[in-house]
């Protein structure tokens, strides 16, 4: 037994100090491991889409260049549904409210300021999406079941209907938009607000999809007011 160890064993204060130092070092090690694990977990989490109405996000996202090339897909949630609101219905109880129709009409005024000549439109077969599409675009399409039955196939269906050099606008439901975000490993809010849109760009060369961001229904006028 060496003199140093004998000294520590026969010197209680020194032994106590050594134990305290050991526990302190162990605690620091555990904290370091937990911190690194937390950082690693955070880095692995999908990023949430930016709000294109904030700051200069619309311009820096490449929105206009993608629109002019016909590379954009916009997935719009229907406006306020009548059966989930105390507001008066526009018409049928499975459709939208009058308030929702007003929002969609104002939204349409902004959206139609874009050149829609190279744009394809689809809506789900449910009345609330048909009425939303009619208010926004002044037209609807034949029933598109894939815009309501979208579980696990949304990304494939979007790419199948996206034609090269033509933008694609889809009036659909929050769960379908969330399904696309999941397929693209994008963190989504609990649910997009009524009339909000997710905007993505599709590269025609390899069919890769890039998320540009989201836009609230009432923000389109502000967003497009400064368009080039």
Give the arrangement of secondary structure elements.
Blueprint: H1 3-9, H2 12-44, H3 57-60, H4 63-69, E1 72-77, H5 98-111, E2 119-123, H6 127-137, H7 154-161, E3 167-172, H8 174-183, E4 197-202, E5 209-215, H9 220-225
Parallel strand pairs: 1-3, 2-3
Antiparallel strand pairs: 1-4, 4-5
Concise overview:
With 228 residues, this protein is α/β, with parallel strands linked by helices.
CATH architecture of the largest domain: 3-Layer(aba) Sandwich
The CATH topology of the largest domain turns out to be: Rossmann fold
Low-confidence stretches: 40-44
Q: Decide which structural class fits the backbone.
A: alpha/beta
Q: Class of the largest domain, according to the CATH hierarchy?
A: Alpha Beta
How much strand content do the residues show? 5-15%
Number of helices: 9
Name of the CATH superfamily of the largest domain: Phosphoglycerate mutase-like
**Rg from alpha-carbon coordinates:** 27 Å
What sequence of helices (H) and strands (E) makes up the elements? HHHHEHEHHEHEEH
Biggest sheet architecture: 5 strands, mixed
Oligomerization category of the chains in this entry = single chain
Distance between the termini: 84 Å
**How many extended strands?**
5
Average pLDDT level:
85
Shape, per Cα inertia axes: elongated
């Amino acid at each position: 037994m060496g003199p140093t160890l004998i000294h520590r064993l026969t010197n209680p204060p020194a032994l106590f100090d050594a134990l305290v130092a050991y526990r302190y070092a162990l605690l620091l090690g555990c904290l370091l491991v937990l911190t690194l694990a937390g950082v690693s977990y955070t880095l692995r989490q999908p990023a949430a889409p930016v709000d294109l109405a904030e700051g200069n996000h619309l311009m820096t996202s490449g929105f206009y260049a993608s629109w002019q090339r016909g590379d954009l897909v916009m997935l719009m949630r229907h406006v306020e549904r009548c059966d989930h609101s105390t507001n008066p219905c526009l018409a049928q109880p499975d459709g939208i409210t009058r308030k929702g129709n007003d929002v969609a009409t104002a939204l349409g005024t902004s959206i139609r300021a874009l050149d829609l000549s190279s744009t394809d439109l689809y809506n789900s077969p449910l009345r609330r999406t048909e009425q939303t599409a009619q208010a926004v675009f002044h037209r609807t399409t034949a029933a598109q079941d894939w815009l309501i039955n979208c579980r696990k196939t949304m990304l494939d269906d979007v790419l199948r209907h996206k034609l090269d050099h033509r933008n694609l606008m889809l009036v659909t439901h929050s769960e379908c938009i969330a399904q696309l975000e999941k397929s693209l490993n994008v963190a989504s809010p609990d649910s997009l607000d009524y009339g909000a849109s997710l905007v993505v760009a599709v590269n025609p060369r390899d069919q890769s999809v890039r998320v540009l961001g989201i836009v609230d229904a009432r923000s389109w006028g502000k967003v497009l007011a400064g368009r080039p």
